[in-house]
Structure formats: C-alpha cells, structure tokens
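Allow me, if you will, to draw on your knowledge of protein folds for a short while. A protein sequence and the structure tokens that stand for its backbone fold form the material at issue. I would ask you to consider whether the tokens describe a fold that such a sequence might reasonably adopt. Thank you for your consideration; the sequence and its tokens are set out here:
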Amino acid sequence: MNLFDYADVSKKSPSELSEKEAELELERISGEMAEHDIAYYQNDAPTISDAEYDVLRKRNEEIEKLFPKLIRDDSPSKKIGSKPSEKFGKVKHKVPMLSLANAFAEDDIKDWLTRTRKFLNLSEAEEIEIFAEPKMDGLSFSARYENGVLVQGATRGDGEVGEDITANLKEILPNELTGDFPEVLEVRGEVYMSHENFKKLNEKREAVGEAPFANPRNAAAGSLRQLDSKITARRGLSYYIFGWGELSENFKNYSDVIDFIESLGFEVNPENSEVNKLSEVVSFYDNIFENRSKLPYDIDGTVYKINRLDWQERLGKVARSPRWAIAHKFPAEQAKTIIENIRIQVGRTGALTPVADLKPITVGGVVVSHATLHNKDEIERKDIRVGDAVTIQRAGDVIPQVVEVDFDKRADDSAAYEFPNSCPICGSHAVAEEGEAIARCTGGLICDAQMVERLKHFVSRDAFDIDGLGAKQIELFWEKGLIKEPSDIFTLERRDKNSLTPIRNWQGFGKISAENLFVGVNQRRTIELHRFVFALGVRHIGQNMAKLLAQNYGSYAGWKSAMVKIASGDVEQYDELLAIDGVGRKVADIIKEFFAEEHNIKALDDLESEVKILDAEGVISDSPVARKIVVFTGSLVKMGRSEAKAKAESLGAKVSGSVSKKTDYVVAGEAAGSKLKKAEELGVSILTEDEWLELVNA
C-alpha cells in the first residue's frame, strides 16, 4: 500500500480514525505546524498567514484525547511562543510564561472542568470558582518591579527567554508604584492598540507614504518592539495586566491578586468577572462574543482560570500550558479567493507538502496569501486545481485552510493537479510508507532540501542556537560547499583562515559579520545534553523527548553507550529505554535505527571532538525520591494518577511505566495488578498511597 491507494484520513473525524490513522494524522499536523512556525516566528517570512492554526491545533488535541498513547514529543500541544529577536537583549523569565490550551465549544469547557475535578479529586458538589476575562489580541509582556521601581521588561519570547523591552515599557507602564507595594512584583499583561488609535496611526503613515499596518495587533507588536523608545511613546499604546510571575506576598485567590495589582495603579480589564459554574462561564462567553464589536479593542476569545491559588499550584502545568487555565476561542472567519499556483515544499524529514499560493485576501483584518493542502489525498478529495475560486477559513494566528471549491466558477480548460511522484529538489522517487498519507523523498543523503533543513534545525533556537548562523547563512554556506555536516560548522573558522576567498571578503558579508559569526559559533561549543540530542534531528525526538532522555541517562556518554548497545541488539538496554514513561516502541525503534547507521556514529564522533556536552542538570531537591525510579499502579484515592506523577517528577523522581530490577518504589493503589506482582517477585519496595504521601510530605 502506498500514497496512491491509501484512503484519505486527513478529513475524517477523530472518532472515525483507526489507531494507525490517528498516528499518521498527529505526525502530519505536527510537521505541518512546525514548518510554518519556523517560517513565521524564526524567519519573519511566513509562507502562510493566520487561518488554519487553531483548526489544526484543535484537531490535534481531539485526536490526542482519543489516543493519549500516541501523543508525540513534538506535538503542537507542547510548544510555547517564538524565538526572541536578535535585535534586543535577552531576558530569561524566572517563572516561564506559558501558553494557554484552546477550547472551541461549550463541550471543551465542560471537559476541562471535568478533568480539573478528576485531577483534584473533587466531588460534583464542590464548586469551582472561575476567574473569567476577555482574551486580548495584542502582545504579551512581563514587567519586574523591585521596591516599587520598574527595573526590567520583556516580551514572552519562547516562554523561557524573551526580548528586553524595558525602555519601551517605561513609556507605557507606571515607572514607580504607589501604595503598599511588595518588595518584588513581576506583572504580566497585554499591550494593545485601540481601534481609534489604530485608525489615527494608519492615517499618519499613509499621509507620509508609509505602508499601513494590517491590524491593531501587528501595530501594537511593531510599536512595542521598536529600538527607539521615543517611537513607542508616540504610538498610543494601552495595556491591561492579566497576571503575574514573581510576587513576594501570599494570596488566596487569583482575583485577590488582580485586585491588589489594580490598587497599585495598574490597568486591569473592567470586563473581568468571577463565575461559579458552567452555565455562568457560557453566559460570560456569549455576552463577550455578542458585544465584542462595541469594545474599543480587538479580542479573539475569552480566558478562564481556576480562582483558588492552592488549586492552581496542585494542577501545575502540562508541557506548554497550565492545567488551571484555558482559552475559549471565537469561531473561524471565512473569505473567497483564487488559487494562483500549487507548489511542493520538502521538509527536514523529506515530507512533500503541497502549498496553495492564493490571490491575497484579507480575512478578519489579516492578509492571507498561502494555505497548506496537506497531501495528495486532500487535493483529490476536494478536487483542488490551479485557478479555482475557493473558500478559505481563518481560525487562529498562523495558518489558513482551504474549505471548499466553487465549482460553478471553474474555467472550462481547468486541469486536475498531478501530484509529483518524485522530489522536486533532487529528483529522487517520492513514496509513502505503508499506511502513511504523506509521501517522502527517498534521497535523504543526496537531497539538498533535507540536508539543508537538517542543518537549519541543528542551529535553530532550541538546538545549538548559533547567533549569526540562521537559515539564509546555512543555505549560502551549503551552496558554496563549506557546510555539509554539523561538525563543519565548528571547523569553519579554521578552514576559512586558509581559504583564498575568506568569508570576510565575500560580497554582502564583510569583516564584522564574519567575526560575529565565528564568535557565535565559538560561544556554542558547550551545550546542554537535551539540546544536543534535540539538535541531531532524529525523527520523533522533539524537545520534550530529548529532555526526558537526558534526564534519564544523565550524561552524553551514558546515553550514547546505551543507544549503541541497543543498536547492537542489547535487549535489556532496549527494555530499559521502553520503561521510561513517555517512550514508546516507535521512538525506541527509531533511535535504534539511528545508532545502527555508521555515518550517524561518525557524525557524532566528529561533533564530540568539537563541542563539550554538559551532563543533564538534576532537579534540585532534597526529597527522598529525588533521582529514584517510581512506578504507579492501581487506582489512587487521595489524588489522581496525573497529580501523583506530576508531584513525583517535581521532586526529581523518574516515573516509569514498567517495573524492573532498577525500580526503587512501586506505589500500589486499589486493584493493583501485574506491576504489583512483578514488584513482589523482584523485591522492589512497595508503598501504599498513604505511605507514598508521607514519604513526599504531600
């Protein structure tokens, strides 16, 4: 079975998917969103605009709910924000700025509340108070005050590191606080531009021949991220505070903190409200949705947060999002346009993705000019052709979707699109593995697109993050034959010194650029283990999986040794890899295949001689379960399994899905089965739920 006879799965409802089809859909969605995120966030040159991102994310989350065992390490549900610009200094957030999970219907909110009750082990009779607020469509920021003085401001960035915009925020926020302010306060909020000020700004820009901004959000983001704070001051920006990071005082409820922040002189949204049950949450959403045209600013939904702070702390976070908050997004917007061309993009894994170039059209204030077409089956199912009039849908902040074709407007000479059976870059045959809907180039070792994309991934922000060596530089050095393998990056300066045409003499490069490049490379000769593992670009090894492997193996030497043994057929090591909670057989087999390739081992050896790979940082904890391997089995009564696992990991324990002789503790709840029996056979320490809670002081 191949791509050309495999039934289309991309538009089946999640409940109609088989497990194999669900796995393929999750792979397609994650790859598609990752490539467009890179174009939008890192390269500042999006190949598509805002439309399908939320639609794809929703489909991804629906499939993950039905098939939780298939959740990928590189799932969009685990990613946060975007890379900070190199124009600004970098600020590391002391408390990460997380993104919110999305809901699109009342049932999604109901499910969220049900999950919350289950996690907290609450009865149906116990009320869950919700802090509700409009979801502002602006640019998020954090601002740190020490002894009442604004000392630092930053954008969200990628959630961990943001851009230093202190000078610009001083033009908008209070520079000094009044009243009974705490010693440390880091407020978080949204900078926005009102409709009135947006109109005035564009009128001024057009009057002097400058291009107008597309929408208030772009105008606010562009204004806040000016290198000259005087420009920011003239742009008429506003803000609302929606939360905080660090705070040197204790409160009971989220609403109490917001009230306290307002008392210090900050602006908070007057539409904020406290509600107690699902019907009140729905009423809040309906009221905001019906009256949003009357608001003086743009919003794209509502946000709900568990009000009790002790419950928020127990709920914690999962990957990119807090469990205690969710965003309820407004419905998608649609428009009609023309498909001017269909082209094929080749990704890092060789995936051939068709992209529609559209006649630019504004949808909800955003210009849409590209849309992904997913795969060959999607094109055939909808019978999409060049020249077609189509309806496109915008339902998020990044990617558009082609909803349907207007066949009444199709030209008589229209021809069906023929999906290529070869790679447009290297000419190699393009095939789909059995059961896959995505065709891939088979020329992995000769295809420039794949090799260049792999190198781009290697230097990307979550990998080696080399300043001065971005996508354009990788393409340039590849074309000139200077970088073909990752290790070539670290020998570039030595080779350049002996070159007849050194980089500093290249047209458009210059001495300063060359020096900055070499400095950037040398600054990245030391790297954390998890970033190194992620940088290798092994399929299905995303950031979170890389962190999981680093945490469990501790050092590069330990990880490599175990993986080489697995590749040589060591069953015990393979089983230990599978025992790591979160590692499935598919991931284990791919790692095994990677280390079975001699050229991959050589690439690692070459890198080892050029870079220093740091051991994984252990969780700083004096808990008796720190660095212990723990297995949970059976039903827990006093806390949910998810909460128990999260608690163990927060204390530095390694949670495993299976029992082995290396297991330190098995926590046995009610109706414990085979895992308990195996623990007894191996002599592993067995704890009741109460004994576990006493051990971890929970």
Observations:
- The chain has a mean pLDDT of 85.
- Residues 579 and 625 are 18 Å apart (CA to CA).
- The first strand starts at residue 90 and ends at 92.
